[in-house]
Design a protein that fits this description.
Length: 174
Amino acid sequence: MPYLDVGCGINKKPGSIGIDRNPSTNADVLVELDRFPYPFRDAAFDGLQAIHVIEHVSDVIRAMEEFHRVVRPGGEVFIVTPHYTDFSSFCDPTHRWHLNSFSLRYFGADNAGYGYYSKAKFQEISVHVKLLALWRWLGFQFMVNASPRFRRFWEHYLCYVVRGKVIEWRLKVV
């Protein structure tokens, strides 16, 4: 089965089907990313990537539900977005959402009691936070990613000093 590159831009993943709203991109199919459903059947893809897309959509929950619909059970969804403490999260006026490394937990087993927002469920394979260069060189990035407990401590108390850059999620469709 093929792989879907949502919001592919000009750097479409080789071998994937790219969708984007901009006709000046390398998209195979022009799709308004906030209009659902996308023009694909259920479970049509083995996997999906949305790199620097989720912060632009009008409804994160609905977009995640659509990602869940088009990827087969057991397939992987890869999402990348700026961390909310990074300058790039707020300097782009097209960013609607400013997320942290726990923002997608509502779709998993650790839904903090908010699992009723959506029937779409994902298993968290990994969450990786990239930090600004200074903090990476000092070893903070390793510590933030070594343990969800330390990552939570960092998000609660340290992230405005030890600033994040990018969050990467690997999720499995349940």
